[in-house]
Design goal:
The chain is an alpha/beta fold. The chain is built from 16 helices and five strands. The chain is elongated.
Length: about 350
């Protein structure tokens, strides 16, 4: 490349701006912005940056909000983003990539690591387009999907095999209903600006396939607690909450050794681990807040709670649809993602129809 590639650094820390600029300016053209708002304006100007270095934690508009705006804008949607994260951040690299990052680098910055990640991302950005025959590419993609489907079935069977001798107190219809809720809610949200980059046909289909494994960890909880008709004691509740971690661990064990990793199992592990997190951070097991909770788990949380409300459990009778609707509304911005709640309430009759279609035998 004869012309220097352009890198936009968005960081509210002048120290970081100076450090990264000093390290990179001999090889690249550097632009800087001290806030997300300014960064978005600079990124939208032509010619677009070849790469954006973006700080995860900034006041007013943090890195995830900036990434969302960048991915919503057709002019900036395809710019690679290298996200600068804190060493003790709860956000892992895989989740950051799902939220829009191309790669991550931890703070404090290591010069050699920064230089190498920037080099790889810039070279990838400018790599020539593949020239293979389109029919060959389509055939390869079909073969890959068929292979993935076969492996997914194998892995799912392996996960369930660990549970073959154990029982779940809830019915198989709960699985059918929640899977239907997740699929329909995801379809209702697929054109929403916050979710359009994530919720495509393939992802929605995988989410619906993965959702039945959300409570797989309950097999590790004793029947004395799982089937208790009354309120759990504080000690029993601590044990009960552990099913989220047990479930994600079981799925991780089933997925071990399968390469490349299957997205079905990745999403199933997410759902099992985080579907009891709450938008306001009061959930478990990790107390994640807002968009830090994976989209998959946020969808599952709403579906799972709705189904639990309108169906009888060993510890409670069923509520009416109207009562459940009011509880869901009350949980907006507290338990549930506000936009997901709005979509659920807007299409509430559809979810009631799904519940009726797969209602338990009386």
């Amino acid at each position: 490349m004869t012309d220097l590639s352009t890198i936009l650094i968005i960081d509210d820390s002048f120290e970081n701006l100076h450090l990264m600029s000093s390290l990179l300016r001999t090889q690249y053209r550097i632009l800087t912005a001290t806030s997300g708002e300014i960064g978005l304006l600079v990124a939208s100007k032509q010619p677009s940056p070849d790469l954006i270095l973006l700080d995860e934690k900034m006041p007013d508009m943090d890195g995830y909000a900036v990434m969302l705006k960048l991915r919503e804008n057709a002019a900036t949607r395809n710019i690679p983003i290298l996200l600068l994260t804190e060493v003790n951040s709860k956000i892992d690299g895989e989740h950051a990539v799902r939220m829009g990052a191309t790669d991550c680098i931890s703070n404090p910055i290591k010069p050699t690591e920064l230089a190498e990640k920037v080099r790889v991302l810039i070279e990838t950005k400018h790599a020539p387009a593949l020239t293979e025959n389109q029919n060959v590419l389509l055939e390869a993609e079909l073969a890959r999907r068929l292979a993935d489907s076969h492996l997914a079935q194998q892995a799912t069977i392996r996960a369930l095999a660990h549970l073959a001798e154990l029982s779940d107190p809830e019915t198989s219809n709960h699985i059918l209903r929640t899977s239907g809720y997740v699929r329909h809610l995801a379809n209702c949200l697929r054109q929403h600006p916050r979710f359009v980059a994530y919720l495509n046909d393939q992802t929605i289909d995988i989410l619906a396939q993965a959702s039945p494994l959300h409570d797989i960890g309950k097999i590790g909880i004793s029947d004395d607690i799982l089937l208790k008709p009354g309120k759990l004691t504080p000690e029993e509740w601590v044990v009960m909450k552990n099913h989220a971690v047990l479930g994600s661990q079981a799925i991780a064990k089933a997925a071990h050794g399968i390469h490349p990793p299957l997205r079905l199992l990745t999403l199933a592990e997410e759902i099992a681990h985080w579907h009891h997190e709450k938008w306001d951070g009061s959930g478990y097991p990790d107390g994640l807040v807002g968009d830090a909770i994976p989209i998959s788990a946020r969808l599952m949380a709403l579906a799972d709670v709705f189904d639990a409300l309108i169906n009888a459990r060993v510890y409670k009778p069923a509520m009416s649809n109207a009562e459940a609707r009011e509880i869901i509304i009350a949980g907006r911005g507290k338990h549930f993602d506000p936009d997901m709640t709005d979509a659920f309430i807007k299409h509430f009759d559809d979810f009631v129809a799904i519940a009726k279609k797969y209602q338990d035998a009386t």
